[in-house]
Design brief:
Elements: E1 4-8, E2 11-12, E3 15-16, H1 18-31, E4 36-41, H2 49-54, E5 59-63, H3 73-83, E6 90-95, H4 98-111, E7 114-119, E8 121-125, E9 128-135, E10 140-144, E11 151-155, E12 172-175, E13 205-209, H5 220-229, E14 232-235, H6 237-241, E15 262-266, H7 272-278, E16 283-288, E17 301-304, H8 307-320
Parallel strand pairs: 1-4, 1-6, 4-5, 5-12, 6-11, 7-11, 13-14, 13-15, 15-16, 16-17
Antiparallel strand pairs: 2-3, 8-9, 9-10
Helix pairs in contact: 3-4, 5-8
The chain binds flavin-adenine dinucleotide (FAD).
Length: 321
Amino acid sequence: MTHHVFVLGEMKDGTVRSVSIEALAAARKIAGNHPVTGILFGEHANENSDIMIQHGADEVITADHQALRQYTTDGYSQALLQVLPDNQPIVLVIGHTAIGKDLSPRVAAKIGMGLITDIVSLEVVNGKPIFTRPIYAGKAFEKKTFKETSGLVTIRPNNVEPLPKDQSRHGKKSHVQVNIKDIRTVVKDVMKKAGGGTDLSEAKIIVAGGRGVKSAEGFKPLEELADVLGGAVGASRGACDAGYCDYALQIGQTGKVVTPDLYIAAGISGAIQHLAGMSHSRVIVAINKDPEAPIFDVADYKIVGDLFDVVPHITKHLKDD
Ligand code: FAD
C-alpha cells in the first residue's frame, strides 16, 4: 500500500519539539520506502527544516503567515489543508500534545479520514500500519488500523524511539504561500508561568510530590532533586487540591499522562487515578513512609521512609558524585 506520510512538526521556543522528532520515526516506519514529508509553520519554520530532515524527513514544506505565528485552530487547520495533497492516500502524524489534540479531529473531519489518537507504539504488518493505544485509563491496550488508506494519528510523547540525528541526510525544502482568512480567535499575548521550564509530558525525568509534602514549601526538596537530575517537577491531585502547587503539574487520569525514563513519587499514596497517568514510566521510584502504600505495587525501587530525609539525601549524593 502506498503511503505518503506527513508529519506536522511542532515548535517550542523556536525549535522542533522532541515529540515531533519521535513522530518522524513513527512516520518512517509507516512509510517504508515511500516519502516522509515534514511540515513546519511559523517564523522559525525555515531554520528548523534541517532538523526534520536529519531525523527522517525526505522533504520539508514550510509556510509562514501572521496567523501562523501563534497556534490557532483556524490558522493551522486552514494551512494544513492547503499544504496536504488532495485525493491521495496519506497518513498524517502529529504529536499527542495540546495542539495535536485540538487540531487532529478538525483536520481528520475536514479531509474525511480516520483518526487514531494517543498511540504508544506501532508495527507494520503486510504494509499496513497497526497502532497500539491505551484504553480504560491505561489499564488495557487496543490495536487499531485504518479502514481506508488514509488516516491521521497522534503519538504520545516519550514512547516512540527517535531516529538518531544523521547530518549527512539531505532533502528537498519548499516554502509555500498559504491563504488564511476568517480567523475566529486571536492570540494577543503568551505569558509563561514562572518555573514552567520542561514540559511534563516530554520530560525524561520527573520528581513528583503528593499530599505528603505537606505544604508549598515542602516541594522545595523535590525541586532541588529535579534540578540536579535535569528533570521536571510533577504532582498528585492531592497536592494540587491542597494548594501546594499549580494544577499544571497534576499527573493522572484528569491531569497529564507521562512516560518518563525515571519517575520519582514522593509522598504519593498511589491512587488508581494517579497511576493512570504514570504507571507506564520506565523506572518508578517510590518514597513513602507507609510500607502498605499502593504506589509500591507499581514501583521498581521502594524506599520506605520520610521524604524530607530521603529526598535531600539523594540530592546530596548526586551533587557529591
Ligand atoms: P494521599 O492519598 O493523601 O497520600 C499521601 C501519601 O503521602 C500517603 O501515602 C502517606 O503515607 C505519604 N506521606 C505522608 N507524609 C510523608 C512523608 N513525610 N514522607 C513520605 N511519605 C509521606 N489524583 C491524581 O493524582 N491525579 C489525577 O489525575 C486524579 N484524578 C482523579 C479523578 C477523579 C474522578 C477522582 C475521583 C479522583 C482523582 N484523583 C486524582 C485523586 C485520587 O483519587 C487521590 O485522592 C489522590 O491521588 C491522592 O493524592 P496523594 O497521593 O498526594 O494524597
